[in-house]
Amino acid sequence: MPSDPYHAVSLVRLCRLLGVSRQAYYQHLWVREERSIEEHLIVQQVHEIRKTHRRMGGRKLYELLEPFMLEHQIKMGRDALFDLLGRNYLLVKKRRSRVYTTQSSHWLRKYPNLIKDQSIDRKNQVWVSDITYWKSKSKNYYISFITDAYSKKIVGYRIAETLEAVESVRALKMAVSGLKKEPDSPLSLIHHSDRGIQYCCKEYVKLLQDNQINISMTEHGDPLENAIAERVNGIIKNEYLNDYEVDNLTEARALLKEIVKLYNEERPHMSLDMLTPELVHQQNLNPKGLWKNYYKKKPDIVNIDQDNQTTVNLLQY
Predict the structure, then answer these.
(1) Which PROSITE patterns match (predicted)?
(2) Is 278 found in the same domain as 134?
(3) Rg of the chain on CA atoms, in Å
């Protein structure tokens, strides 16, 4: 209640004009103040999450914020969160670039597509691989990723200053090394990639064959034939790498190691029922809608990742 009698008289007149009681007026002020405090807490928490996940989108932010909101008894829907992010200039804008890393015009043997009609229902059934490009301080880096198609976990990676095949071989060796440490070895495993020279070279093919891994490759140059690998490239670059600068390869490798850990262990995936790749992979979980066969139906809602000329269904990630 205000101590100034003139203010009190003015407030009474205002409430009469508005057709509300003073109690309702004060209650409105309290609710507005409480909402302002809650929004401030949410914005603070978003900034905390964005310290490591600098370009994480609103849907995934909402998933990570839910425990915090429950703890503080804050009720806020996803649309309200998007509005709050917009008012505080926290929405993420897409970045675009166009770089080609695939050289498929070569004489080496190319293999058929083995996953065209596959239904992926377990980890280590299909690995997808691709190479992407990252520019930092006018220096070019090339990154090879190997991802488990079921859990979306990055199981092998390598960053280098060249596109030499030996760097992709090192990423594959990391993936194979991790596979050998798992107690439940796969019944059969397919390695799927584009027809780039790195994947067709003698050293890469031999490493796959020595570990009884079947070889599968895209056939028509359609990005959807390797959509998961292409999408992982976009996530790592657009949500993480593009917000950093490094001075040398040593720094780049240390940064990539930390980012892969964040991606695998903290970033929720819509295609995994908002679970993390590491959790799905290690516990053999089976979220609904885990695998989509991109050959059977074209996506309705799309995002063009021009880094790798890829069109993917946003609802899957």
Answers:
(1) INTEGRASE (PS50994)
(2) yes
(3) 25
Same domain for 149 and 273? yes
**Cα–Cα distance between 44 and 30 in angstroms, integer?**
21
Asked whether residue 3 is domain-assigned, the answer is no
Instruction: Give how many domains the chain has, as a whole number.
Output: 2
Global pTM value: 0.68
Half-sphere exposure of 220 (CA within 13 A, CB side): 5
SS3 127: strand
136 & 16 share domain: no
Helix (H) or strand (E) holding 128: strand 126-136
Same domain, 132 and 279: yes
* pLDDT bucket at 313, cuts 50 / 70 / 90: very low
Same domain, 32 and 133: no
Specify which residues 148 forms β-bridges with: 127
Q: Using one digit for the tens of pLDDT, what is the confidence trace for 188-216?
A: 899 999 988 889 999 999 999 999 999 99
What residue numbers bound the domain in which 244 lies?
126-283
Long-range contacts of 74-78 (CB under 8 A, 24+ apart): 74/38, 74/41, 74/42, 76/38, 76/42
Cβ-contact 118, 295 below 8 angstroms? no
